[in-house]
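Question (not urgent): is this output format expected?
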Amino acid sequence: MTITKTSFPSLQNNSNRVALVEGEKTFSYKEVNERINQFAAGLLRQKSDLREERIAFFMSASLDYVTAMHGVWRAGGIAVPLNVASAVSELDHYLTCADVTRMVAGDEYHDSLRELCHSLNIDLVSVADVLTEESVTVPEISPDRRALMLFTSGTTNKPKGVVSTHRTVEAQITTLVEAWEWSEDDVIPLFLPVHHIHGIINILSCGLWAGATVHLFSKFDIPRISEQIVAGTYNVFMAVPTIYVKLIQYFEGIEEEEVQKICGGFNAMRLNISGSAACPVKLFKQWKELTGQVLLERYGMTEIGMGISNPYNGERRAGAVGQPLPGVECQLFDDNDNPVVNETFSGEIRIKGDNVFLEYWNNEEATKESFKDGWFCTGDVAVVEGGYYRIMGRSSVDIIKSGGYKLSALEIEGVLLTHDAIAEVAVIGIEDDTWGEAVTAVIALKQGKSLDYNTLKSWCDGKMSSYKIPKHLKIIDSLPRNAMGKVTKPSLKEII
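Got this back:
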């Protein structure tokens, strides 16, 4: 079996170094590589090339996940990792939008997925079903071939499929390996979702590219992870602000001696990173006081990977996301599409580079609207202060960053409007120390109807992912609207 040029260098080396740790089991780079080859061969039965076939997978961080991701890539397919917390209606959209033909899922999910896959004529398999030791020659993969499709919420009411090429993926990885000085000596826990750019690129892919060791967790298990931190297992830690808040809350409920041990474990690490949502200055200072670690905050999104970062070596500023990463062009533009050259003025962040995605799948209009003169328009507004970018907010109030997720208010509103008691609804993000922004539903009820938060929360279960469910409910007589009939969301924040 030949190895494609797109394979990660550390996997090609077939080293006996530990690549993955899952529970009590360890897997070397050689073992992982062989398994990936077996999976790719199984996908290719009777074929020479998958030719960008969309293959979805539905599993948490695991050896099977890595096998599926890299196996799809080697066989010439497009990997479509999905959120295991997704509701059936959401999965229906993802699978239909991406024209998925096969779904690779953990055994524990098969019962819940079988009916949906059958209705969409999608083959439902496990990794074990696909693995084969047959000899197969995998195709040569062009760097410009499509490799990865992740779903993100934009300003439309349905998530879009963000498509990246092999070149894009490699650029997103290598800029971080260089900037954050990844090496084969690094050991890092992965507990963030692996349908999200943070978990896929920043942790898993960077780790495997550099020859590091990645510890896999299906969720953020504070006691287990804390135990490893105390033992000095990890030297790199990446999380969203919500995780750091939860750790601080955890510290408040345990003995001071244990707190000191855990904080000492963090102190010994070479790097702690925060991202996916703005890190409150208060949290930045708290973490430094507790652990001695100065959090490295960065800025990115599904469409670009990471674009801006505080320095690994140098000043890390509270409230700032830093400077453009190697190979990334970044520029602020005003409302008239003119470059902002004065540091006292804000503008929209626009990005160029190999790290930028190729397209929104089957959505030429949305793709075209996202670019101006070759620049990708992020929709995020920033100001540059002493060379450091500071995020001011989003140009769209319909984008909410909560707990590391980028959510569409319009998507959530669309679901809530199907409730028989709701006449009108506006979903907004309210600043919150734990979540960054807490999803808040402002609702006008139908005449004679009543609704409380617990009832709404229960109703939302199964209709949307748990992280999209509103954390607050405000009931008002009617939503404020402008002369054109559009809800004035900024005014809603004033009454919450």
